[in-house]
Each structure stands twice: as structure tokens, then as C-alpha cells.
Amino acid sequence: MKTKDGKLLMRCLKEIWNHEPQSLLMAGGLAVADALLPLVPALLSWLFVEGLAAGWSFGRLAAIAGIGVTVLFLLNALRGKMYHCGLPHTENCNDLMEWEYQEKTMTMDYASLDSREAAYLRAKIHNDYQWGNGAYFMVPQFQRLCSAVLGIAAAVVLMAPVLMQRSFWLHWSSPVFLVFAVALTGLSARSQNRVFVKTEALRDEYDKKSARSDWLVDNLTYREGKDIRIYRAKSLIMGALRETERDHMVDGESRLEGRAGALDGIISGLLMGGSYVFIVLRALQGALSAGSVVLFASSIYQLCESLKLLARSRSEIFRNARRMESSLDYLELPGLLQDGPRSVGQTEEAVDIEFRDVTFYYPGSGIPALSHVSMHLRPGEKTAVVGRNGSGKTTMIKLLCRLYDPQEGQILMNGKDIREYRYEEYLRMFSVVFQDFFLLALPLGENVAGAREYDEERVRECLEKAGFGPRLARMEKGLQTSLYRILAEDGVEISGGEAQKIALARALYKNAPMVILDEPTAALDPISEYEVYSGFRNLIGDRTALFISHRLSSCRFCDRILVFQDGQLVQEGTHEELQQDRQGLYSRMWEAQAQYYQES
């Protein structure tokens, strides 16, 4: 056992033990039963032969048979009970480990989630699961490994009385047979290990080639069906699914396993044949009694089978451990954002936000997404942020929400560096609607409230304020209506504009001190967007608000407008003030949009 593989196996077993120790305990019990079951018939046969040779009475032999049958019955009954009791624990352990992975994904800070290491591990986990299957495979493999070890020990114990006789080793056949058996066993173990190494290499090669097909399998739903048919993308998609060369991997693995199986069969035949020749030879020489021949033959058979099982189960459990390694590494990923000691406190008052010379680079990028940005969002102020695509608007929002920390400068809330606040408490200060917001395929009310239990009146009120009232009135199940038909047959499809109104209602329901709208109304026409934004100003009252939009006409109701370009804050002021600078970016963007609408 290599040190690395041994340590990895212990990590896997420890993870299973932490979730469901009963599964491993039951597996250990099964291993003991599996090791003992073959011993009973061997011992019975030995006793019968020895008893018949010694002239034992029928009653004595019948009593021995009765005891043996009873022991067999009890062992089989105990084995069956442990198997059926252990299986639910194993399945539950697998579910708990899967939930732990999902919980890690949902709770780790965004910067860690977005890191290259996390992305690589998630992709690897997807492929590893196909062969690893967590505890569902690991526990039975652990049981077989223990059975093999205990079976070897039991066989040695049965042969011990004969092996401990000095006269047994004086004949040349005994050491020759020992060398013969050890050599064949070593050859079998080496063969299994070679298959393991080559199979892992084949699967690693497949993993590297399957990235595109994995994405397609995970992300294609019925909602993409329209585009697939209109653009005749079926051949493209099927080609991407075929290009992984899975058939090549399966054929290669099948050939390897086939050769190993054939060699294993030959080795088993040689070992068993050699064993029986050795036993007969020693019996003819008078070194073994008739009963000992039966016992020795049974013991050697169990020893050979246990050695084969040990080699096979060792390869299998190490293979599965390596497939679980990516999940374990993912769970141990450290957070990149430090949690501060300061409490935000319970406040519904508007907040004061200040950026001081903030510079930020995305991981792996040498170009700053924000460069030396300084700005002040005053309490209760409604501020619009405009700029071309890629100018840094959304990046600024991510930094404000502390999804990332800047490499240079500070972001302050109410005069304190936001890194000093407790992370989870700080996030509760914001109601945000991102441009790439996400709605779950769950009931409408749960989507708005973000919880199973919620205030139905408040949810309806928020949906009405966000402009979703007429659509809600047409839903037969009201707030219990499932969105989309992914999880519910009676789910409803909603348009992009309706989805954005639900997202706005969700921001209203949270009722946080600061509201941020990051282009959430892109699917609305200009008039509807202006109505939503101007109405939203009244809805949020005195709370601090930040609005991002490509349509400059929707920003006129704001107290102040910030203009971003190439990661820098290049202008700020009211609409009227910015219009006076005819060479400024804002004025040029305004004229361009005005001309477009006039021509339209």
C-alpha cells in the first residue's frame, strides 16, 4: 500500500464515519461473517472424517452436525440482518455527502467559488462521480477488503496446527510449494495493480476530453429546444457528445479487464492445482491424516480466494478513493474573504458608502477591472451608474456587495472598512437585482421570499408594486404556482419581463437598507423601464439606492449620475450638469441614444 493511497483511503473512511459510522460498523460485521462462513463446513468435514476414522458414535457425529448447521444458520441470519440494516445507512451517508458538497457550494464566499481551483474541482467531481459514487461503492469495497484480510487470517489459523509441525517443513516439497504460492500470488497482485494504473490513465484522458459534453449534459433543458431546432444545432451537439471518445475508453478498459481476468483465472488454476498436488503428495508421505487433508485443502482454497479478493478489492477501493479525492479537496477549499469581528447591528436606516482609491483585478487577469475609483454614495441618495459594456459598473457592484475584495484601496460603510464587518451580516444590508439574476423552478411565493415560510400578504404587495399584479391574478394557484415546467408538470412559463418583475419584488421583500438594481429591466421596453425605475424610487423611500442602466433616459429621476469608462469613474453629476459638458462621455451617449429613438 503506497503511503499516499493509504492516507487518501483513511480520509475517505473518516468522511464516511463522520456522517454514518453505522455503515462502516455493519460492513465490518459483514466482513467477519463472510470470513467465518467458509470455516464452518471445513471444520465439519474435518471432524466427520476424523470421527469416522476414529470410530465415533452416530450420536456424537449427529450432535456435531447439528451444532454446525445451527452455527451456519445463525451466521447467515446475522449476515442478512446486518446487510439489510447497513444498506439504508450507506444510502443515507451518500446523500449526506452529496448535500455537504452542495452546502459548500452555496455557503463558500463568491471569490472562492469563482476561483480557477474551485472550477477545476467542480468539473473533476462531475466525472469522478460516475465511477466513485461515494459511500455507495466505498462501503461495500471496504467490506470486501476486510473480508479478504480476515479470510486470509482464518485460513492461516486453520492450517496452523499442520504448519507448526517441524516435520512438515523438512520435506523439500513444503518450501517449494511456499515459493510457488507466493510467486503466483505476487503475480496476481501485480496484474491487478497494472490494470488499475492503466484504467486510471484511460479515465483521466477521457475526463480531459469530456468538458464540452459534460456542460451540454448538465445545462441543456427543454427551454433550449427552440434554438436547437431553429438553428439545426442537433448535429453540432451530438458531435460534441461523441467527441469524448467514451467508446474508446470503454473498449480499452474492457480489454485490460479481460486480459487481467484471463491471467487471474490461469493463476488460480495453477495455484489450486499445485495445492492439491502438494496435499496429495504430503498425505501419501504420511504427513497429513485423512481429516487434515480435507481441512488443509479447504483452507488452501479459502486462502487462494481471499488473496485474489484482496488484490481485486485493494485496487477497487483505491480507485474509488481517488474518485472521492476531488470532492474531499473541494470541501477543504479555504475561504478567500476574511470574516470581520464587527457587528452590523439591526438597522433599517439608509447607509453611507464610500470608495477610496479602489483598484481591482479579476483572478488571473493583468488588466484592472476598476482602477483608482473614488466615489461617495450618501445616505438616502438615489444614484445612477452608466457606461459602456465592460466599463466596470457590475464589477463595482460586486465589490460593494463584497463578493470580492479589492487589491488596493478601501470601501467604507458608515465610516468603517467593510472588511471589518461580519460577512453574513454585511450581506443582509443589500437588496440586489443583478443583470443575470436567477429564479428557481419553485413556487412563485418561495421565489419572492427566498423561504418556504413567508408572509403571503407582503409577497402579494411586493409583486403588485413591481408590476406583476395582473399576471398574478391570472394564475390559478396564485403564489403556489410553480415557475417553469422543470420540476412541475403544471408549472408556468414566464417572459423575460415578467421574470424581472419577480426579481424586483424579491428585492422589495427583503427590505434591506440599500437597494441595487444592476440592469434588471433589460427585457422591458424603454417606457416600462422608466415607469419601473421612477416607481421604484417612491417604493424604496429614504433608503440608499444604486441604479445601473444602459438607457440614460431612465436615470434622469436619480439625484446623481456616475459615468464609468474602462474601469474608471470619468464623470459625475446630475443629468443637467453632465449635459453641459458637450464633449463628455455622458453627453455623447445621450445624443447617440436620442438619435436612435428619433430614427426609430
From TrEMBL:
Name this protein carries in UniProt: ABC transporter ATP-binding protein/permease
Keywords per UniProt: ATP-binding, Membrane, Nucleotide-binding, Transmembrane, Transmembrane helix
Topology relative to the membrane: Multi-pass membrane protein
Transmembrane region(s): 24-49, 61-78, 145-163, 169-189, 287-304
Pfam families: ABC_tran
Compartment(s) where it occurs, according to its Swiss-Prot or TrEMBL record: Cell membrane
Domain annotation ABC transporter: ranges: 353-591
GO cellular component: plasma membrane
Species this chain originates from: Candidatus Fusicatenibacter merdavium
InterPro entries, per the entry: AAA+_ATPase (IPR003593), ABC1_TM_sf (IPR036640), ABC_transporter-like_ATP-bd (IPR003439), ABC_transporter-like_CS (IPR017871), P-loop_NTPase (IPR027417), Type_1_exporter (IPR039421)
MF (Gene Ontology): ATP binding; ATP hydrolysis activity; ATPase-coupled lipid transmembrane transporter activity
